[in-house]
Amino acid sequence: MENCLFCKIVEKTIPAQVIFEDDDTLAFRDINPVAPVHILLVPKKHLENILGLDAALAQAMHASLKKITEQEKLAQGFRVVANTGEHGGQTVYHLHWHILSGRHMGWPPG
Ligand code: 5GP
Ligand code: ZN
């Protein structure tokens, strides 16, 4: 989609530190990490938010999540966050799962 930051990262017209890629998904390091490990996992197809996921793409995202947590050795634990809409704190309107780890995350998130 035109003028979508994460579509441009998927198309590789904007650089990112990519850590995982397959046919349907891409994962790269967040430019402004809020934890020692802060990865963004996105579908290559432009979807505004998590509500647009269909079963096939949800399965692909989940499969990538599993591979990334193994690859990045996150067995001690991690948090997956999908900020959605204004009250959810979403700033980039291309679905992304934040994968946060490397420290205790605390609860509630604030
Ligand atoms: P949201 O606030 O929509 O849940 O998350 C958007 C995330 O994208 C933020 O954590 C922000 O730091 C990250 N981000 C924004 N612009 C860029 C960029 O150009 N490259 C990368 N790697 N991350 C970005
Ligand atoms: Zn997009």
Describe the structure.
The protein has 110 residues and is α+β, with helices and mostly antiparallel strands. The chain is built from 3 helices and 5 strands. It has helices at 5-11, 55-71, 85-88; strands at 18-21, 25-29, 37-43, 79-81, 97-101. It has a 5-stranded antiparallel β-sheet, with helices on one face. The longest helix is centred in the middle third of the chain and has 17 residues, at 55-71.
Write the layout of secondary structure elements.
Blueprint: H1 5-11, E1 18-21, E2 25-29, E3 37-43, H2 55-71, E4 79-81, H3 85-88, E5 97-101
Antiparallel strand pairs: 1-2, 2-3, 3-5, 4-5
The structure holds guanosine-5'-monophosphate and zinc ion.
Radius of gyration: 13 Å
**Largest sheet at a glance?**
5 strands, antiparallel
Strand content: 15-25%
Spans of at least 5 consecutive residues whose pLDDT stays below 50 are none
Tally of strands: 5
Give the neighbour order of strands across the main sheet: 1-2-3-5-4
Shape: globular
Bound molecules: guanosine-5'-monophosphate, zinc ion
| H/E series | HEEEHEHE
Number of helices: 3
Distance between the termini: 32 Å
Give the structural class: alpha+beta
Q: Averaged pLDDT, please? A: 97
